Predict the 3D structure of the following.
Amino acid sequence: MSQVITTIIGGLFLILLIKFLHRFGWQLFGPRDSATFFEVTFPYNHNKSAYANEQFLSQFHSLAGQKNIWQRLFGYKKRYSLEIVSSAKDGIRYIIAMSSADAPIIKKNLLSFISGIEIKEISDYLPEDLFESKSGKTKVVEFKLSNDFVLPLKKHESLEGHDPIAYLAGNMTKLYPKELISMQLVITPIGRSTHGGIMKKINNIENKIQNKQALSPYLSNDIWQKLLAIPWTILKWLLKAFELVIKIVLSIFTALWDSDGTSTPILAKESQVVVIDNIHNPYDQQFQNEVKEKLDQPLFEASMRLLVLAQSKKRYRERLSGFLSSLGQFSSTYQSFAIRYFNILRIIQSPSKAFTSRQIAYASNPVLSLSELASIFHFPTFDATKTEDLLKIKSQPLPAPLSFKQNADNFDNAFAKNYYGGTETVIGQTLEGRRRHTYILGATGSGKTTLLTSMIYSDIANGKGVAVLDPHGQLIEKLMEVIPKNRIKDVIWFAPDDDAFPISLNLLEMDSEGLSASQLQKQKSIVTSSIISIMQKFYDEKFFGPRMEYVLRNTILTALETPEPTIKTILDILTKTRYRKALIKTLENPVLRDYWIYEFEKLGSLQRNTVISPITNKIGGILSSPINYNILTQASGKLNFDEIMNSGKILLCDLSKGKIGEDESSFFGSLVISKIQLAALKRALIPEAKRKDFYLYIDEFQNFATETFSELVSEARKYRLSTILAHQSISQIENRDIIKIILANVGTVICFKTANPEDEQFILPIFSPEVSKHQISNLPLYNFYMKVSVGKAEDTLVAQADNFTVKGSDKIAKAVIEESRKRYASEMNQNKQPEIPEEEPEEVKPEKKKQPKQAGLLP
């Protein structure tokens, strides 16, 4: 007998052990999953509906079914932690924690679900000593449902105008330093293999609903509801008794009428039997429908917790009270949330441990339907949620186009990264794209200079020829410190303030070697137009009219007829009468000769002074500086722009306004650009296949933008001159035609954060429809939108400029300056400004210059 009892007890114990292992085995003894944490930030215009949030959360049910045999045997529950955490430092953030195995799938679903979402993989935000701190109050509170889980919470079908998250998040604001609040929902989908008891109860409830039995007496814990049900119960018993009496009377009457007993009593037919239990009051019908609606949805077991780290017990109670108040919006007639104050299983699993490990509580947990879960935890709709400190993306993230991924190995210059959905893509330009020119717009401090530094250094390190014009000087100073040692001898450092070693830059210098008469005449025309454009920058339109331009043009063309002309030659022609008259006698160009004899000399002294004074005042003002005089009046120097471009030299122009003045900076910059333009046009004599690519970087290009500048951009491509033009604001350019021509000819447009609303209004159509209003002005620092048009393809993306991490050296900068001076500069005392005599010499006979016969001119 004892053996039988022992066997029975052993069998019962084994059954209980199997049940226990099936329920808690994996949680207690199974291997711990490696966790991945996603910080999810949403675009400012996110407005997904409640239904859309349900669709996203429903994926967890699909993922839960993907388990191996051991996980099924030991009751493994796949769990996901949905958290909203707030701190004074980081604001209010959405965190999703999951097993690393499920992370890639969830990330892809998130990216598909919300356009423009930002997903950042982070480490656990909880401090390691969270519960060891003796200062303040740290506590985890667990919540339960007030009534049976089949009873539904309040429905929130629409999030428009009323977003429950706003109330929850509102109680997470205004935290003190080192305070922390986190709402955690650890969920696991309910299935037959893991939740047998819950599924059994659900089946029983569904059977009662199918059989139209009242549910309220079985489920409601509300004493008032039970009291209200008593009269209806009594009425049902009375009806049953009345039914029985009627049934007996009818049976007797039928038996007497049909004495042979062949007839069947009327009420014996099932179709005519009235079941009193199926008669519901209106309250039961509504109750049954709402329970059925909940149970028909996917269900989740959920452990809901709140972590509060406060500076004092008073602050803790205030935060807890506020959070409980915000949970009241989910309360329905039958159901609400309540704090779980007592749980005997805390001995095994404390709330703090469960919170940090993201575990499902061992105690009975709330069971939530998909719609209830979506009401409590969903992504914010910013039209309805105006909570402060809630992180949002104000600029639209865009993925890297396929063309960039395909051409990553073919980039001629890589300078940024695209981060989208946790994927990093290198961003750069192909050689063909660079030949279409690049335009960069960005406010001060937005990252524009960092991008330029990276691009220029990459070109220099790769042995390319570059010219850099910098009106501030900081970019040049940075580049001078990082020049690779093998390229120090290629650098030409042009700094007008280096008065001890000036580099000659003759405005009228031309290399006529190898040019035909027509080509030479074309070069003269280009030089003349360039000088006029440069001079025009210094005058208001009302002062620089057609007549003044006419005089200046003829003066420049006349100066170009003299041997070794300089800018001083222009001044001499206009101010020295004897010199001009002697020069006129040597002119072979009849048009110029007739101009001076029959037009200029016929002007009265007042008219002549009115026309030439603005010209002589400006040129004289420039030459009055000994530094400028030594740079501009050297007839020939060591700076050969043809050689710079064709041999791939590095021309660094430090045109700092603070060192040389705004006018001089603009003047020298425009002069360098005209020289480069002239050298580019001379490449027409070189076969296209042999033209070496050269890159012209101009920071704050509006300082040097002239009428001929737009011609440079439109024609430079075929001469293998690629321009990279950068500036801060559209408003800096008075002549909008120039910027329109530039944008019409560039293949790449890059836009950083702008400070002027006019900039966004002007540039936005280029990036539409991918980029919307206000997104450019809200770009994070060092981030930019980029539009690339090469051939028929047009791609728009957002990227972050690479940090420039190359360490500079003063020694390298000094070596560059020393080498440049030795190769290209002249010492100051060799070009001392001559003293100008008070009286004009009796006669100055300019040397007649031998030139090839000019095509199309009269002898």
The two ends are 143 Å apart (CA to CA). The first strand starts at residue 35 and ends at 43.
